[in-house]
Amino acid sequence: MSLLFRQSWTEPGSDLVPATRHLVRGSVEKFWDGATEEKYDDIELVTGELLANAVFYAKAPLTIEVSTKDAGVRIEVNDHSPDLLPPPPPQAALAETGRGLMLTALLSSAWGWEVNQHSKTIWVEFTR
């Protein structure tokens, strides 16, 4: 794996989400020169959803890493709330919560999470 982007925050605010989405997109565009605009849009949208969930629900510090994996891209958002696992994506588009995870599941190649004693990492992968 090769690291494309990494950023950490000790006191995250909601303003980090839009700025970081664009930085992640720019990093991925350099790696995947020639991918479709829709793929870049999907990556930007899912990045925003994962970061917004971390800012809203989880404990800091927060870290995002974007790396290449084989011919794809892996995005990891790490927080310090190992006991707060994401719920399964809702089955209905009109559900009151969880639509971001539903979009993540629909737009990515794979997603999941890893937990250790002090933190949790939500990861998502995209392939061409």
Describe this structure in words.
- With 128 residues, the protein is of the alpha+beta class.
- It has a single domain (2-126), classed as 2-Layer Sandwich (Heat Shock Protein 90), CATH 3.30.565.
- Helix content is 36%, strand content 29%.
- It has a five-stranded antiparallel beta sheet with strand order 1-2-3-5-4, with helices on one face.
Please summarize what this structure is.
The chain has helices at 16-31, 37-57, 99-107, and strands at residues 2-9, 62-69, 72-79, 110-115, 120-126. With 128 residues, it is of the alpha+beta class.
Task: List low-pLDDT spans.
Answer: none
Name the CATH architecture: 2-Layer Sandwich
Question: Roughly what fraction of the amino acids lie in strands?
Answer: 25-35%
Tell me the total number of β-strands: 5
Global mean pLDDT: 90
Give me the Rg, rounded: 14 Å
Number of domain units: 1
Number of helices: 3
User: Which CATH top level class fits?
Assistant: Alpha Beta
- Principal-axes geometry comes out as globular
CATH topology: Heat Shock Protein 90
Helices and strands: which structural class? alpha+beta
Q: How are the strands of the largest sheet arranged?
A: 1-2-3-5-4
Could you give the order of the helices and strands? EHHEEHEE
Q: Percent range for helical residues?
A: 25-40%
| Largest sheet, strands/sense/barrel | 5 strands, antiparallel
Terminal CA distance reads 16 Å
